[in-house]
Amino acid sequence: ERKFLSDGISKLGLKVYPSDSNFILFYTDKQADLKTELIKQQILIRDCSDYENLKNGFYRVAVKSHGENKILLRKIKKALE
Fold first, then answer.
1. What is the pLDDT of residue 20?
2. Contact, 36 vs 5, CB < 8 A?
3. pTM recorded for the entire structure
4. Which of 20, 38, 56, 59 could form a disulfide with 43 if both were Cys (CB 3.0 to 4.6 A apart)?
5. How confident is the model over 17-44, as pLDDT tens digits?
6. CA 69, CA 7: separation in Å to the nearest integer?
7. How far is CA 4 from CA 40, 50, 75, in A?
8. What is the C-alpha separation between 7 and 13, in angstroms, rounded?
9. Could you tell me which residues are beta bridge partners of residue 24?
10. Phi then psi for 57, rounded to 5 degrees?
11. DSSP notation for 4-47
């Protein structure tokens, strides 16, 4: 599922960073506050802008079941529109 989710996030035009954990770190330079937009859709993701050496636009998501990952990808796509 990590590969499915990573590939899906990449296909949305976001930069995905390699990971061996159950979390995926990605970056977007789009103007939308992705966390706020996803909260409106009842999805919570981690804003990583307060992590050392990271800035606004870095987010982290957990790898979940295939169905949940499909929903997340669909909602990220909607939030970026």
1. 87
2. no
3. 0.91
4. 38
5. 998 889 999 999 887 789 999 999 999 9
6. 11
7. 24, 27, 15
8. 10
9. 61
10. 105, -10
11. HHHHHHHHTTPEEEP-SSSEEEEE--SSS-HHHHHHTTT---EE
